[in-house]
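Example record

The entry below shows one chain as it appears in the dataset: sequence first, then structure tokens.
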Amino acid sequence: MAGKSRRIENQTADRRRRTGFRLAGAALALLAAPLAVLANETTVMLNGGIAATLNIPDSVAPDAPPAPAVLMLHGFGSSRNEVGNMFASQADALAAMGIASLRIDFRGFGKSDGDTGATTVDSQLDDAKVGLAYLSKVKGIDSARVGVLGFSLGGGVGMLAAAEEPQKIKSLVTWSSVGDFKADFLASLGQKAFDRAKEDGIVGLDLGWRTIALKQAFFDSLENRKLDEAISKYPGAYMAIAGAKDASAAYVEKFLSLAKGQAKLSYIVPDADHIFGALGQDKAKVNDVILKTTEWFSKTL
């Protein structure tokens, strides 16, 4: 699929071409294969009652070198498999390339313990750190080669985690990431939601796919974290992906320019929305995103 991308990497064109062909072939084979044969998935409960799915590639064995791994952080009001099973599909694509993964439900969402209304940006950052700590202790995983993938709000949380624990995150990918916590949620939820939470201490919202109640602490947390500052502190590899029709595309080049690492890549998916058409009949766009993400982590972990 054609798209706008920019590489700031010291790699030769031949190497990129060879790697791309190899990864593309593996990913295309994956999309046609039964998911169950590609990796061993286990449901685990992390500290604090965080439910998660651990995906271990079949290539991980006692006599094999430890494998890299990716922590996946879902978006606002969602859960660990993500809309259209994007994260579940991404986990299997990674496994096909020998990369383990852990996708978590933030507390209060999915199967995790906790009160949904009590969620804040800071609580989700804490959950991400728990996920990173867990991955570092899994047998067969190389704790020096861990990446993070964040979607939407999870993208912002991933940037914060990368800024605060850069030694634990070698590579970061964001999909349709929030760019300014307060401005983006104000545009999404509306001023009335902010005002009601301030007046009553809590507000009920209909997101379209679910209802949710948020306490004032959530709205307060939107003020306290600045993503420009966070990404500017991260020295590792960074890839930003957004749909051309999504508001998140406006942040991509700015974040790429602020990131300190030398390995950077942006990809604007042509004619794509916030979820890359994951719920439509044509999966070409979301499959393209999964392929490019797998390719990136294969090269940077």
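Notes for this example: The first helix runs from residue 13 to 31. The radius of gyration is 18 Å.
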